[in-house]
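S.,

Sequence below, as promised.
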Amino acid sequence: MTSRRRLTPAQAQRRAEVVALRTARLSFAEIGQRLGVTSQRAGRIYSEALAAVPRANVDEHRCEELELIDTAVRELMVIAGDPATSTRDHIRVWEAIRAWAERKAKLLGLDAPTRTETLTLDRIDSEIDTLSREMATTRLVESGTELSMEAIDAEIQRLTKELGEDW
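The prediction came back faster than expected:
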């Protein structure tokens, strides 16, 4: 959770250290050990720092991470394709490749849920009817005609003829 409060110089310095160490590929456990905090706190500081960074910088960081992932997988594929690699190492390499693939999918949002909306013909027809009534009512109000259901229905029929049957 990010806070809108101002950071003290010491907090800003700690944030900068965490980001620099993470950029140097240290784990949160290693960062925490160096700074005298838990790995969870180091991760929270890093997340807060990222949340405070402009979007362009986050996108740049994401690109750097993707390059790292691609490089790691490319190098692991060389080991996986080497016939001299033992079965045990083969399994470890493929586990590492899978882990990198999962990280890449998470970074790109590939596993994020997607929202879908299913429209039926009945729903579309209902929306057309609603919009037709709104359009007819607007025209009647603009023309100064008294509003009544009969007047609206008559205006809808007139609009339907004006616009054609296929609208």
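The chain is about 75% helix and 0% strand.

Coffee later?
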